[in-house]
């Protein structure tokens, strides 16, 4: 068999997805000699392993053998009920357990919504930059992307309005409104309202992806976009990955009819159901532990890390490099001078000389055209390592600043 | 919002999938007044809940907080290593852990292979009848189906040869060779060899779906089709759902390059990874328990149930109704006289009068055209209930036999 022959059998959806660059970055970032700001990792030391161990025990004690049988595709009703209450208390969204489906992390929810809506070539709007994992999911349905810029108040709704006017066929608008991945910015109240009005006007669905919502270090949360939904056009997604553990692979999706039933049918065709054992364990964890206290502990720890990174950026980064100051979440976004290719810089200079990794801009834009930026994660590392890594990174960027000729040679 | 407006936004892939009939059947079959042979359920009383509880405890004790972090998409290496050894010992397939990916049950493996290969309209061959869940997964990629009949030696390879000659563009051949779902038949040795030769000749991929392989009640197993693969064209799928527990949602996929890497990339875009906690628990279960002894216990229990069903079918079914005599697996397939619509019969007569449920033929054929058959599951119920249900079902079928006029009225 020749590999060339075999690849002729692959569907078009996978032929344009060259993930080799990204795979290489994450491979390099896993090298313990490097300080990696690339992954979006929670802090290992904050996982409540003992409480979760007790929760698995309790779930299996209570469920017995019947827990190990097939169960509903939509997921454990008592857990959905708890999430319905959480949606009311933490996102100002009034829904019942019937409006909620449990998924394999937020990622599966993104994939299922794309699968439900996107024919090949269908138009959709995404923020630029946006969550690269969402692009990977969307890419497999081959949409036509329209990129909407992000500023300090989130997605630029005026730009979106112009785009919808020019392309009224846009059927899906994807946004990460709370502590946006990768910029860390949060969509303003007025923009949330305006976004729903635009979706109503242009008959579009909004996919509100909000895994970082509870991780706020300053200020107070805004209502979810779903709160302003008047026509059942908003699908809200969140996840236990960042507030409890990503290894549980449990997210949830909130939607109205006819979307929710269609999404349940699609999940059934995709993986039948999620693990009843895991869902019962999470349900038990929530019954016997105060997850809001746990989240408060996370926030106290992550605030210190964010501040350490911002302080180091202030101190070690040159004046021609700008960065965001997020009030929560996992990420800070850095903008380099025009013309700098952050991916090339990473491979040629940053990794070999500074032994630091980040996620370069290009793979976080649907059109892959913006190159002068990168994403930094601050939750996965301790404050001392954060400071050391940013200092090393700043040393290279200061050098680029002083001598652009050398930088250009390095980037060639 | 009108539901009509919203459905205009749905992708074509979901518009042709009317699952309402099937949902209704499963809803009715869940009614405790009915005896349901519809689901493909293992016996609750055979799940090793205590051993699995200990396995979760051990996995979390060993893994500690790091277990709850993100991990590899391909899945826990030590578990993949155990499965590589199992593939050698139980399927005559020599592979390394690098050739294996862990999935959310066998269902996700089917979905990912379809996602990798199928453009809208691409040609594929499926058995007729076949596993309805596989059809649900394939349907979402909108292939052109070619149905290949199944006889007592499995897929009719002569028919496949003619089909491939007429349609050499067929790129994927899906088969359940061991205790086929829904007929229970097993593909002969010669046909396995011939199938691989045909795939080589016509540059096609074989998807070998084998979740029932270890559940044999008579005779000895044949090598997997993957054993005869000379060009890396066979993707083998199996699952812990039937031999351990479906609630673990853990299957595995065996493939060569370039397929395996492409499938890992697609899983990453679909749900990032499976649960490390679950995979570590299964790994611990396998390390501390003899799964082959557990499977031997399953087989002893399921053989009794199969025999109870075959005895009842012999006794209570009329001569114009035929059925298969599987040597393993979960299912028996029943063929009714030509012209009988098993779905209509179920809704009009069998459920209301006999309070028995089965899966009617139509939803198990890609073209939905064959109506005179149904699938019976024998693993989920006890022998007495099996006998009672088959007796009731036979009573109706005897009646159909005696007086076709009444039957036709009942079926109108």
TrEMBL record, chains A, B:
Cofactors (names): pyridoxal 5'-phosphate
Family matches, as InterPro entries: Aminotransferase_I/II_large, Class-I_PLP-dep_aminotransf, PyrdxlP-dep_Trfase, PyrdxlP-dep_Trfase_major, PyrdxlP-dep_Trfase_small
GO biological process: alpha-amino acid metabolic process
Gene3D superfamilies according to UniProt: Aspartate Aminotransferase, domain 1 (3.90.1150.10), Type I PLP-dependent aspartate aminotransferase-like (Major domain) (3.40.640.10)
Domain Aminotransferase class I/classII large per the UniProt entry, residue ranges: 48-393
Listed GO MF terms: pyridoxal phosphate binding; transaminase activity
Subunit architecture: Homodimer.
Family membership: Belongs to the class-I pyridoxal-phosphate-dependent aminotransferase family.
Protein name: Aminotransferase
